[in-house]
Amino acid sequence: MDVSSVHLRKRKQGKSGRISLYLEFYKGAVTQPDGKAKVLRDYEYLNLYLDDKPRTAAEKEHNKNILELAKSIKAKRELEIKNGQYGFDAGVKDKALFLTYFKAEAEKKATPDDPGNWTSTLKHLTGFVEKLYSSRITFREIDKAFCEGFKDYLRDEATTRTGKGLSSASQGAYYGKFKACLNKAIKDGILSVDPAKGVARPKIISHKREYLTFDELQAIAKAECRNPTLKRMFLFSCLTGLRFSDCHKLTWGEVQRQGEGWRVVFHQQKTKGLQYLDISKQARELMGESGAPDDRVFFAISAYSAYLSIVLREWALKAGITKHLTFHSGRHTFAVLQLENGTDIYTLSRLLGHREIEVTAIYADILDKTRREAMTARIPELSGLNI
After folding, report:
1. In a shared domain, residues 106 and 65
2. Residue 332 falls within a domain, yes or no?
3. Do residues 57 and 114 both lie within one domain?
4. Is residue 167 a part of any domain in this protein?
5. Which of 135, 212, 293, 301 is deepest in the core (most CB within 10 A)?
6. Which helix (H) or strand (E) holds 47?
7. Structural domains of the chain, count
8. Which of 82, 107, 138 lies at the terminal end of a domain, its last residue?
9. What is the pLDDT of residue 1?
């Protein structure tokens, strides 16, 4: 049944001193079995509130601005109805709970061995919704303001399990899953228009990634390091792309013989994704002699510390390298060397265990910069040039 009119309504909220604003959609009337007419209405709660008894100039200005915003939403809904774009089917919208739908999609996409970003997105989306909305929020309440709000929440409030703010890459990945769910809802006929249209995806901020060239890697491999296990572990990272956390927890039970070569099968510490990684003969040699399945490969390293950072930089200086290296530089080195030797960006993304290709593309930008520098700075200028 079509909506014929929209009304802006107010409802006082008990003793809170606030007035809730909502839209009432009139959808005609039907005759009931007893012969009485029943008016059909629908509602959209705007999550906008007026001060019940504004006293100060600021409170009066607040009420004025909120009321104008509510009226603009009402006008927008009226235009959508006029253009046949009011994006919800009357028989479905009240039953289509957004978080329930998203959870179902996350369960389809994620597996116990590979939960991926869907599970993390659901966690942050639930946190955002429960903070500002009702957990029973329906699709009709998902508008552009909601999409902008979730993007801002990811940037300003969402945190990792350790309490740190989300990286720009994680923000982009989680918002991408949210957007994918909306697109699926459009395909399923729950939405007829994209509420996120015009909302830009969070930008990935590219930080400087310190890495070693092949010549520098060769030099540091030859140099002496006062912690031999750190040396083996860092070079192993350079040849495999594994993070410190994954090298640190790697056990011999995760190392498998694969034909003539070797493979490590492990869950990434950061993403919990299951990773199958074939390693080179030299990388296997850096691991040393095999131990019991539960033994850690690099057992002599108890944890990452400031001490290890100092040892790493001392070792680099002995090799004539003045770059500000961290253990993560090993992963960056692996990525850049792979691209320099012809590995395509999609294969590299799988090798690094990235969920989003945009994250891997940063290394392609590094390589392009290196090529530009090679073309513009490394060939000496010709002397006595006569044109």
Report:
1. no
2. yes
3. no
4. yes
5. 212
6. strand 37-51
7. 3
8. 82
9. 46
Q: What is the CATH number of the domain that holds 253?
A: 1.10.443.10
Residues 244 and 287 in one domain: yes
Cα–Cα distance measured from residue 140 to residue 190, given in angstroms and rounded to the nearest whole number: 9
Q: What is the pLDDT of residue 206?
A: 59
* Distance, CA of 158 to CA of 78 (rounded, Å): 35
pLDDT at 113 over 50: no
Same domain? 317 vs 344: yes
* Whole-angstrom distance, CA of residue 199 vs CA of residue 195: 9
Which pLDDT score, from 0 to 100, does residue 84 have?
57
**pLDDT at residue number 366:** 65
Share of the chain above pLDDT 90, in %: 21
Indicate the average pLDDT of the chain. Answer: 81
Same domain, 71 and 115: no
The answer to whether 14 touches 22, Cβ cutoff 8 Å, is no
- My answer on whether 222 and 368 are in the same domain is yes
Is 262 a domain residue?
Answer: yes
How many other CB atoms are there within 10 angstroms of residue 108's CB atom? 10
Residue labelled with tokens 């107010």: 10
* Predicted pLDDT at 284: 93
Q: Could you tell me the pTM of the whole model? A: 0.50
Is 91 a member of any domain? no
**295 and 250 Cβ atoms separated by less than 8 Å:** no
Percentage of the chain surpassing pLDDT 70? 82
Query: Max Cα separation, the chain?
Result: 105
- Residue 16 and residue 69 in one domain: yes
Tokens of 175: 């918002």
Assess whether 173 and 227 both reside in one domain: no
pLDDT in tens, 272-326: 778 888 999 999 999 999 999 999 999 888 877 788 889 999 999 999 999 888 8
Q: SS3 letters for 196-249?
A: CCCCCCCCCCCCCCCCCCHHHHHHHHHCCCCCHHHHHHHHHHHHHCCCHHHHHH
Distance CA 170, CA 203 (A): 10
What residues make up the domain containing 69? 5-82
Question: By the 8 A CB rule, do 230 and 242 touch?
Answer: no
Cβ-Cβ contacts under 8 Å for 273 (sequence gap 6 or more): 114, 115, 116, 267, 353, 355
